[in-house]
Amino acid sequence: MPRRFDQNRPFATLGIIVAAWLILPVGFKALVRASFFELTAPVAQAASYVRDLQEYWSLRLHTESELIEAGRDLARVNASYALSVQQVADLQTEISRLESALRLPPRPHYREEAARVVQRDFSGWWQRLVIRKGSSSGITVGCPVVFTGGVVGRVSEVHTFSSVVEMISSPDVRLAAVIEGDTRPVAYQGGDNPTFGPAKGSIEFVPLDIFAHADSPRSLVTSGLGGQFPPGLKIGDVVRVAPSADGLFKTGEVRLDLRLAELDEVTVLVPEAQP
Question: What's the whole-model pTM score?
Answer without folding.
Answer: 0.73
